[in-house]
């Protein structure tokens, strides 16, 4: 099978999975993982010699797919909230990352020893470093799906993006430490130079490219040209950084933030911004789909149970280490709202980056199969267990409004309506002389008492009612704007409205739609 045909089939499968997951209200990422696992089982059980024609190589991920995912995620991260929460983000992605790797390494090594699983300390360090990279796509899609508070979203998105870049840098150091890279040797001068170039050089390069692209975006109003600028920024910042031995992830991250805040916010009209966002959304959807489906096709999923004990130890070690360093940072830097610590700890979903770093472990490494299985297995558990229960965790700490909470409004309405009917019936029966004064007074008092309880309940849920009404009004207004937009497009296509006037009217409507999406 040719790579082009294989890619087309993969996209067709991805679209089918997306449609089915939307229809049955399933998480798209979870559905992708399940389908990828099913494809792996079918391929290796029934068609072991079949070659799909395309594989998730280091080059495909780092040269094509990862720049799209990193840039798209960074593009949405705004400077003001990011820098307002920078002390927490840097500690989570920096200090927390180092503490987490150290603690996770110890827990994996000694945990395996307790259960009689042979593993070297170097392998435990390698596994811990690779699984320290949380998946920005998984984290962001998780937060969007659960409608988490904005501050929480900024903390988790910022941490996920930064620790990806740092995890790749640390992964390179560990690879050298274990002798995988024969072209470099660890020394203090080399380490200082490496870190400065990997981190400092990457940020400067990405920021510079982002600034230039942002200025160029002001020179054109053509959506196709603007999307081309975005593509150049994403791939250019990543590939140039890799070419000069800097961090492509950090460079692309910085570039994406600069373009998203300077180029998009200052230089793009609402219509152009919507076009760029639609392009980035599709590109991220395609890239993420390709990663998970190719992982399923390249990995023998049925081999994972052979190392189930080590996988479970790795997953538990990851959770303990993450809970510990998030809790520790909250002690050092108090001020996180209630409930954020357990949610941030539980929300550390792993994904494509960790899995592809695992595949880049050399074949000659003695513990390669065990390391790959631990990384893949633990990453899959974070997706299948942590991501699917995240909404419940958020709801437990009152950080999202569950559907059940919003249904309280309807319950109150129903109770008030039934109470009024009961009062009317009681009054009618009393006037007809069907009940005595004593019975009438008794039930009048009971109904009055119940009415007071419902009114108190209603007062407590007033803010919730207003929130529900505001959200309903926002959605209806957006629908009406879409109807107006379709009418203008139809009129322009039939020639009853000049194209120039139609474009102007659509731009005004897009401005309103964009404003609604931001609130």
From TrEMBL:
It holds the Pfam family Na_H_Exchanger. It is a multi-pass membrane protein. Signal peptide: none annotated. GO terms for cellular component: plasma membrane. One of its GO terms (biological process) is regulation of intracellular pH. Its main location: membrane. It comes from the Bacteria. The chain crosses the membrane at residues 28-47, 59-77, 97-117, 161-178, 190-212, 224-241, 276-296, 308-327, 339-358, 370-394. Keywords: Antiport, Cell membrane, Coiled coil, Ion transport, Membrane, Sodium, Sodium transport, Transmembrane, Transmembrane helix, Transport. Residues 454-486 form a coiled coil. PANTHER family: NA(+)_H(+) ANTIPORTER NHAS2, SODIUM/HYDROGEN EXCHANGER. Belongs to the monovalent cation:proton antiporter 1 (CPA1) transporter (TC 2.A.36) family. This is Sodium/proton antiporter, CPA1 family. The lineage of its organism: Bacteria, Pseudomonadati, Bdellovibrionota, Oligoflexia, Oligoflexales.
């Amino acid at each position: 099978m040719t790579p082009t045909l294989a890619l087309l089939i993969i996209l067709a499968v991805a679209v089918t999975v997306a449609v089915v997951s939307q229809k049955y209200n399933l998480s798209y990422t979870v559905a992708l993982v399940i389908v990828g696992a099913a494809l792996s089982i079918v391929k290796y059980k029934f068609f072991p010699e079949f070659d799909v024609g395309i594989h998730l190589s280091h080059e495909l991920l780092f040269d094509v797919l990862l720049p799209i995912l990193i840039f798209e995620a960074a593009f949405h991260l705004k400077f003001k909230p990011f820098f307002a929460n920078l002390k927490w983000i840097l500690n989570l992605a920096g200090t927390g990352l180092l503490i987490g790797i150290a603690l996770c390494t110890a827990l994996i090594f000694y945990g395996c020893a307790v259960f009689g699983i042979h593993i070297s300390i170097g392998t435990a360090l390698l596994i811990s470093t690779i699984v320290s990279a949380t998946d920005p796509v998984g984290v962001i899609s998780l937060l969007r799906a659960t409608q988490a508070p904005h501050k929480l979203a900024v903390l988790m998105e910022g941490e996920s993006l930064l620790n990806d870049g740092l995890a790749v840098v640390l992964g390179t150091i560990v690879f050298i430490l274990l002798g995988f890279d024969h072209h470099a040797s660890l020394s203090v001068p080399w380490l200082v130079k490496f870190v400065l170039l990997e981190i400092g050089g990457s940020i400067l390069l990405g920021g510079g490219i982002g600034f230039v692209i942002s200025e160029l975006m002001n020179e054109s109003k053509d959506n196709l040209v603007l999307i081309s600028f975005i593509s150049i920024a994403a791939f250019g910042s990543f590939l140039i950084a890799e070419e000069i031995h800097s961090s492509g992830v950090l460079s692309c991250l910085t570039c994406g933030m600069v373009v998203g805040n300077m180029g998009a916010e200052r230089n793009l009209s609402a219509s152009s911004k919507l076009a760029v966002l639609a392009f980035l959304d599709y590109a991220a959807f395609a890239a993420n789909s390709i990663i998970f489906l190719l992982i399923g096709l390249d990995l023998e999923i049925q081999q994972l149970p052979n190392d189930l004990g080590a996988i479970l130890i790795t997953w538990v070690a990851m959770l303990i280490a993450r809970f510990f360093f998030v809790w520790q940072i909250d002690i050092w830097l108090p001020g996180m709202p209630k409930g954020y610590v357990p949610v941030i700890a539980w929300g550390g979903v792993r994904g494509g980056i960790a899995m592809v770093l695992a595949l880049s472990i050399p074949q000659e490494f003695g513990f390669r199969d065990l390391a790959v299985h631990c990384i893949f297995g633990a990453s899959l558990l974070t997706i299948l267990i942590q991501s699917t229960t995240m909404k419940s965790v958020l709801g437990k700490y009152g950080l999202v409004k569950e559907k059940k909470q919003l249904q309280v409004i309807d319950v109150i309405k129903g109770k008030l309506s039934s109470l009024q009917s009961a009062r009317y019936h009681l009054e009618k029966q009393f006037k007809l002389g069907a009940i005595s004064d004593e019975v009438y007074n008794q039930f009048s008092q009971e109904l009055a008492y119940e009415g007071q309880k419902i009114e108190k309940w209603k007062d407590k849920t007033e803010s919730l009612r207003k929130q529900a009404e505001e959200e309903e009004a926002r959605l209806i207004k957006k629908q009406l704007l879409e109807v107006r937009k379709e009418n203008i497009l139809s009129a322009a296509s039939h020639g009853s409205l000049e194209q120039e006037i139609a474009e102007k009217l659509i731009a005004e409507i897009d401005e309103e739609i964009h404003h609604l999406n931001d609130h």
